[in-house]
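Minutes, project huddle
Topic: does the predicted pose make sense with arginine bound?
PN asked that the exact inputs be recorded in the minutes so nobody has to dig through chat later. Recorded below.
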Amino acid sequence: MDFKEIIASLIFDSINDVQIDKDEIKKYIEIPKENENGDFAFPCFRLAKSLKMAPNIIAENLKEKINIKDSIIEKVEAISGYLNFFIDKSHIVKNAIDKFDIQKEEYGKQNIGNEKIILVEYSSPNIAKPFHIGHLKTTIIGNALFNIYKNCGYKTISLNHLGDYGTQFAKLIEGYKRWGSEYDLENDPIDKLSDIYKRINELCEEDESVLEECRETFKKLENGDEFCVNLWNRFKELSLKEFEKIYKLLNVKFDSYNGESFYSDKMQEVVDILEKNGKLTTSQGAKVVDLTDKGIKTPCIIKKTDGTSIYATRDLAAILYRARTYDFDKCIYVVAEEQNLHFKQIFEVAKYLDLDEKYTNGLIHVSYGMIRLPEGKMSTRKGNFVKVEDLLNDAIKKAGEILQDRNDVDNKELISKQVGIGAVIFEDLKESRIKNQVFDLNEALNFNGETGPYVQYMTVRTKSVLEKAGYIPNKDDVNIEVLTDNESINLIKLIENFDKIILSALEKNEPSIIARYSVDLAKAYSTFYNENKIINSDTAVQDARLYLTYMTKVTLTNALKLLGIEVPEKM
Ligand code: ARG
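Predicted holo structure (tokens), as shared on screen:
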């Protein structure tokens, strides 16, 4: 039942002489924050201009005219320019239960995607360099977006655009030639490669001829010299093995690891098309695309003065490749806001590549704010970064310690992992992505805060309530009339809203909307549980409350799943 539609019709039937259609009215209908303002509200200022009347007068007038007899509406109130609608509670309950019943365990799944193809590019760390907490954030946001699109019926493909190309690899090769035998790269390869990189850089600064050697080596690498390519491949394999440890802990997978090097032989076409379209100009010896007429002051460099290509050119080659290979409807880049300018530039330049508008309109940069660790905590361990793998293992260990103090549970190892990782994921998703963040592990693991473990814990509670009661869910057992108390109605309304929450997260590419929702739902269940005795001598009451517990369990579980968080068996 579409309550908004019903209310829009009632309003529409009560106004005349106004140029507004029913759909527009429907669009304006809000869900009030406070229960005392009803279940739905219509802001009458929307009609003030055309009616030439003050909103509070409109509200009063409409209140008199609207005919709620024989409708699902219990009462209408006019308060400070708003029309507040109170739906008959049993209708709210029935509507939510029927809606849930269509999908049951699949509750929240949608099919708006029609198999349209969505590419989600995320994580994209750099080979031989540390995977830092910024990379952790893109990995977590990207994975959640991947899940959300997939859940909504899109054909979703995950891409990891590895930073595996550039002069630094030539430097690494030169460094390795000199000191490779001093290092055991099988253990902590990224630390060691970083060390080699630091040393060779220092040497390059002291000795110009070494820098020259590195340049030569880069050319060799580009031309496929066997020794160089083999070493580069080894660095890449070692790094990937390290990254995989993190991906395994987070349970994320990629359909493609085609990184920058994959596009290195596909860049000439970009240059050719831009040249043909007269878009390339020379600026201080470099080939650039001027974007001033697009409101972007900095030109996009396509080829550097020395003829070598750059990051942007490889990204443009990737756009061509992805359009042809995947025929995407959207290509989403989850990359930090530091690269805002870069994406603005390449999205504009992409319009000069003779691509169908479908592709250039589908390019989306989903950016996120700065993330750092609390001062003086872990940020200084191992140079000035913390290894993400250590951070995750720390979270698992600490979760284990907390659980130890709480309850005796079997399967501790698995549960510590689910809770520790769940805490980290949730912490990265709970605020809108553009906000800067100080990542505090202790806060993330606070079982009583607005955290992953809190939501997991409430979900586990729903499970144990159902188990203890030995309840087998059956919608037909539910007597709707016994669920009309405020706590039940609150919970039911939230559950009913799940699909809209998912859609709004999708439209805004904002998983935090689902994270916030899961906290609200967990809290609503907690209140419901505290206020209402579930195990009850009145079996009708008990069955109805158990069914509502079941609906909560499924909704919480599915919400967490979208975020990439598992629900432990016990907690
Ligand atoms: N490797 C880059 C970094 O770590 C991110 C790559 C983002 N993706 C892209 N298509 N440019 O900063």
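Observations noted during the meeting:
- Residues 289 and 312 are 11 Å apart (CA to CA).
- The longest strand covers residues 73-79.
No decisions taken; revisit at the next huddle.
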